[in-house]
Design goal:
By secondary structure, the chain is α+β, with helices and mostly antiparallel strands. 41% of the residues lie in helices and 13% in strands.
């Protein structure tokens, strides 16, 4: 079964969970794996692109987990959150790690 949904839109997420419940009768596990990342220097990143990244990478995991939780509480279940190693880097967004600067701590 495939369900097309924008996991950053609450209404789509509610439909996703309802359709899953109708078809399977339960939810045992949610794997939050939606994510995007573009290599962009911080000074070149605009607020709209940053907000879109947050919507896809963070808000979607929150919305899906929150919608599925009531179904999983009755029988038990697991929430799994996936990320790439790029989530731990600094400097350019999703790019290279920052380098130490002797007097100022870290410098991108």
């Amino acid at each position: 079964m495939a369900i097309k949904a924008d996991v950053g839109v609450s209404g789509d997420v509610d439909r996703l969970v309802a359709t899953t419940m109708e078809h399977f009768g339960r939810i045992d596990c949610v794997i939050n794996n939606a994510g995007v990342g573009k290599i962009t220097a911080l000074e070149e990143l605009d607020a709209a692109a940053f907000e879109q990244t947050l919507k896809i990478n963070l808000l979607s995991a929150f919305l899906v987990s929150q919608a599925a939780m009531p179904q999983m509480k009755t029988r038990g279940g697991r929430l799994i959150f996936m990320s790439l190693g790029a989530a731990r880097t600094g400097g350019k967004i999703s790019s290279q790690p920052p380098t130490p600067h002797p007097r100022a701590g870290w410098r991108a």
